[in-house]
């Protein structure tokens, strides 16, 4: 069964609004670190010269947010209260949400801003597929081509409130996008609110999770590699970070031969 990577990397060389740092401890440094730790914690003296080439193991140290790279947002990310009760954190979500049949909606012609429920209905009809409860939907907005650049965070398509409610009413509980956010870019949201005074334009995709419990996969990639808009399964299990509103994932499509 072919596997298609649908994940964007965590790369400290990418432009990010929240700085990512990545340092690597060399194998030689790892030997000294291990010996110091054994002395400090266990009271054991260890001569690192007996190791092959005097080396032990490398180690990597990163500083980043749980929303860097491809990740899953949990309901707890959307606010502290939901109409259904206390929103769950990423380590509390049911695993069967994250290994499901999936389908792709092509929104590459939408431009910066949001699309509504009517646009999604049209996109679903174009696939020829009938969505089922708990399917995973993936939105191909074309944003993945700009990963690593500042424009990735300022120019993309999101969903308005009607679009999210349409998908949730179908029984979908995991919505994925190749964009930075399931909502419109921050600048677009603020400008629209200042022009209209309409509170419904303020992050409606995220805030919908206060009414119906669901998860988002943000910052996907490789959707153009899928051979068809449906007929495959997506695995996107989030990393089990205790009490977190999000967790990184290596999202993969399983495509039958």
How would you describe the overall organization of this protein?
- With 257 residues, this protein is of the alpha/beta class.
- It has five helices and 13 strands.
- It has a nine-stranded mixed sheet, covered by helices on one side.
- The termini are close together.
Q: Mind describing the biggest β-sheet?
A: 9 strands, mixed
Number of helices: 5
Query: What Rg is obtained from the alpha carbons, in whole angstroms?
Result: 21 Å
Order of helices and strands: EEHEEEEHEEHEHHEEEE
Query: Mean pLDDT, rounded to whole units?
Result: 97
The neighbouring-strand order within the major sheet is 1-13-11-5-7-9-10-4-12
How much of the polypeptide forms β-strand, as a percent range? Answer: 15-25%
Structural class: alpha/beta
Shape: elongated
- Report the uncertain regions: none
Q: Level of helix content? A: 10-25%
- Distance N terminus to C terminus? 6 Å
In brief, what are we looking at here?
This protein is of the alpha/beta class and 257 residues long. Helices cover 20% and strands 21% of the residues. The longest helix is centred in the first third of the chain and has 16 residues, at 27-42.
Characteristics:
257 residues, 9-stranded mixed β-sheet, alpha/beta, two-stranded antiparallel ribbon, 20% helix
């Amino acid at each position: 069964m072919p596997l298609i990577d649908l994940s964007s990397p965590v790369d400290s060389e990418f432009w990010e609004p929240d700085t990512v740092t990545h340092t690597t401890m060399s194998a030689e440094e790892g030997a000294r670190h291990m010996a110091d730790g054994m002395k400090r914690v266990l009271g054991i003296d260890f001569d690192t010269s007996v190791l092959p080439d005097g080396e032990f193991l490398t180690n990597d140290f990163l500083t980043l947010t749980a929303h860097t790279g491809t990740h899953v947002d949990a309901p707890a990310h959307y606010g502290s209260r939901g109409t259904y009760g206390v929103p769950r954190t990423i380590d509390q979500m049911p695993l069967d949400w994250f290994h499901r049949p999936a389908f792709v909606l092509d929104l590459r012609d939408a431009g910066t801003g949001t699309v509504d429920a009517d646009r999604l209905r049209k996109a679903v009809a174009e696939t020829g597929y009938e969505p089922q409860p708990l399917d995973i939907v993936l939105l191909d907005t074309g944003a993945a081509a700009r990963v690593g650049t500042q424009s990735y965070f300022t120019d993309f398509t999101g969903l308005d409130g009607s679009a999210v409610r349409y998908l949730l009413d179908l029984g979908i509980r995991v919505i994925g996008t190749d964009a930075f956010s399931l909502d419109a870019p921050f600048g677009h949201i603020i400008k629209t609110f200042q022009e209209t005074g309409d509170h419904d334009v303020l992050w409606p995709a995220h805030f919908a999770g206060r009414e119906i419990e669901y998860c988002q996969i943000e910052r996907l990639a490789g959707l153009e590699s899928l051979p068809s808009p449906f007929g495959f399964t997506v695995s996107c299990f989030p990393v089990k970070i205790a009490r977190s509103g999000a967790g990184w994932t290596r999202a993969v499509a399983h495509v039958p031969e």
